[in-house]
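From the pipeline queue, job 12 of 40. The input is one protein chain; the requested action is below.

Action: predict structure.
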Amino acid sequence: MGENITKTNVTDMMHKIFESERMGYAYFYPRDGGYRQEFLISTTPENMANFLGSHFYGAEKMVITDICD
């Protein structure tokens, strides 16, 4: 997580998600009772697996849905 996120990085990530034509939302509910976090992600099988794997231990619950919910 300690990445330095710049406006250019965010723009590049957004372009990759839009180009995948498989856009969705991931809702992350932390195990420690913190606030829900929302992510815009590409819902390709590989990307969903990476998202789930990278947030597995800190999550009480995760919900992934398409843009139509």
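Job complete. The beta strands are 23-30, 37-42, 59-66.
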